[in-house]
Specification:
The chain folds into two domains: 47 residues; 143 residues, AOC barrel-like, CATH 2.40.350. The protein is built from four helices and nine strands. The chain has an eight-stranded antiparallel barrel. The radius of gyration is 25 Å and the shape is elongated.
Length: 197
Amino acid sequence: MRLKSILKAALTMTSLGIFVSTGSMPAHGSTVDFTYNLSGGLTGPPVFIGTGLILDGLATGSFLTSYPELNAVWSPASLHTHDTLDFATAQSNGLFSFSFANGDKLTGLFAEDDSAVIATNTGPFTEMLTITGGTGAFAGASGFALGSGVIGETGYTVHGSGKVSGPGVVPEPASIGFFCEGLLAMAASRKLIKRQR
């Protein structure tokens, strides 16, 4: 009888240890491909400086991956850009921040080729986002995105695609395996105890 109690306690503790470890496991670093499709405009009038303009833009729309569970918490997203357009080179450089529906942020460097915009007032323009970090799932993230867009009468539209990597971008797939191991250990402990009776 004492052996049954010891065995039951050991198996229960093992099972609980597996369940606890699944809840405290760090997220798995991985790379996620994404696309974005946004529309927006300037948040205020441009500020003239020397041979250029300081611009602040805000565009909102979809930010999609191949993971439906991520799309549900990240989309819709807003892209805020703060950059300086140099008329001499027709290049804009500055910073960007993607804000997601769940409060996470993705940040980095922003570069845009506005030569066609200066020539035609509509574009198209091309942009490059260099991801350097963020908050939430994007803490410690890196990556890039390439996009293009056009300017209309009341704002602009932009779409693009890229890759983001980071320690928390996608949940650890092994935690599902550990969860199943815990269930199997509990089932085995019950069968073993029943046999000994």
